[in-house]
Task: structure prediction
Amino acid sequence: MMGRVPGAAFRDLIKEHDVVMRGPFNYQSRDEAGIPREWYDEALKPEVASNLSEVHDRLACVVEMEKENASLNG
Result:
């Protein structure tokens, strides 16, 4: 599972082990733990979840580039 998008890997594991995620979910605690809702909440549309994962990955790249730039400048 290394090198995969975390949300997609999580959903694949849920399907592989035939798990049904049932609410109610403690959104606040899951948010604090860094678990995005699109990973486990079936109410979110898959295409929206896919777009959010893509945005997350892009932002992670931008943050990493900014860290590298900051270390070069300072």
